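dumping this here before i forget
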Amino acid sequence: MRKSFLFIGFSIISLIAQAQYVSRLGRFRVDQIRGCAPFTINITSTNLITTGECTPGKPCIMSFDGSNNCPPNASCQNVIQFTYNTPGTYKLSVLYQSIGSDDIMVTVDNNIQPAFDIFTCAGSKVSINVTDKTYDSYDIDFNFNTGVDTSIPSGNNQVASYSYGAPGNYNISVKGKKLNASNNCSAKVQPFTALTTLPVPSIKTLTANDASTLQLDFTPQTNIQYHAEIAFNNSNNFQVYQTLYGVNSMTAANLTVDKSYYCFRLSSFDPCANANTYSTPVCSHDFDLTVASGVDQLVWQTSSLGISNIQIDRNNSLLTTVPGTATSYNDNAIVCKTNYCYQLVSKYVGGATSISLQKCGTSFTTVTPAAIDNTSSVVSNNNTQVDLVWLQNPAFTAARYNIFRLQGRGIYTFLDSTKTQKYTDATYQGGYCYKINYTDKCDNDSPQGLPSCAVVLQGALDDVNDVTLQWTGYKGWVQGVKSYTIQKYNQQGQLLQTFNAGTDSTYTDTQQDAVNQVQFYKVTATAVQVGVSVSVSNEIKIVKNINLYNPTAFNPESKAAVNKTFSVKGHFIAAMQLQVFDRWGSMVFFSDKNEPWDGRREGIVMPDATYVWTVEGTDLNGSSFKKAGTVVLIRK
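structure:
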């Protein structure tokens, strides 16, 4: 017991020289009453007003945190050292056997490494700003482990500077300390590279986020403090807008981006010398869009200083690139009723870009579309319909075509509409005229086009089966008709012959045809202008006459080769019966095989007399015919 007592007594004596804080009743002393966790406290004396207390022979019971737990000493007797690991406020008490208990309050703080910013200065210098407000003072070691170079109190200007004398890599240590507290809090150590000169800042992009906000993005370098400066509608008169550190972007708000342009420049700021190293200015755009008929007009203002070119984007794709000095651009390559959004991208020599607000508008045009002046018509389907086709100026895109029709005299009335360049009037009755206009996709209406009047063909047959054709001249082509062509077909639709009538509107077909009694004609008009479809008239049907003919007398005994027999002949006869009667009505001859009568009756020579004949039959067109007459038989 004595040996243990002597040890405790020696320990207490050795710590008395460091004791500073006395308990509430003045009975014991400790070396510290405040520190950062983990915080070790020592009881340096237990007999300030007594003797022989807290010895092995007369032990005291210590409580450091409100409990009697003092590992590894389970009873907490005569324990003079304790480590607090958890921040908080504690009551340290000593229970004496003879005089009772005494205590002292102990504060354990969070062990916070103080935050600080490092600012590079030219000439291998540095300035730091301690941003931490936890402690009452701060010890700074600019070379780390070489001792405290300076101490600064807590406050609003916790700044210190240092000169290394040479560029290189260093470590800076900052350690915080409370008043009346142990100097046991952890230091924060940050690496630092001293530089001879500050680097020139580099702006990456200036972006217009909205009508009141610009965003500046740049590439920061470690431990460099930047000043962002702004100029209004110029690139010369700058003023400091914001100090930047440890960030790579800045947002400038409450601006009039839609009405003005702003120029920004960055400086690497040297707080030791209060000096700046500037970047090239980058400027926004005062950008406007005006939508006019057939053109989107872009105008802008900015400073052209340092701009190599300006890229114009339309609907998020490149439209064109203009010189950096340009202040306007007209976009004529537009489609009406289309929404276009434009954006400017100024590209600077050093690689920076400035992106404008996006301006949008819906294009339009008020140009009157060209009238339709080439319309062709083809009469078809047994002359009951007319097929119209037309040409339209390709500079305009039609949304719909409107067809107007004139019947006889009067005004053109609306008939129908279509989206294609053709239309069929299935109620055609001949002699109609048409006009066509259209509404383009820009909602502009063209004037009504030239009247288009189908060719109306008529035909007449004379007594020798010559066909005289007449037709109305075609109307509907701006440059007129080059020529008319007549096509002649048989009843089976085969083309028999083609006649070129030139520009005439009449033609007589004198070509005789013993085979085709029924013939069809139509007229095709060809335009002077190349590329215009032909126009075709109605089709007419001509049925040629059979034109029966017969002799009025015959002589079977004639020495001449003609009129030795009697027969009735004609054109286009399919079948015919011939009957001959004497004056008493008795039939003397009959034939249904187109045989002639030789003046005999069943081989008996008939006398000279006047005989009555009749014929009945059908022609090639299937029509029936009858005819009667007299013939004189002469034998002398």
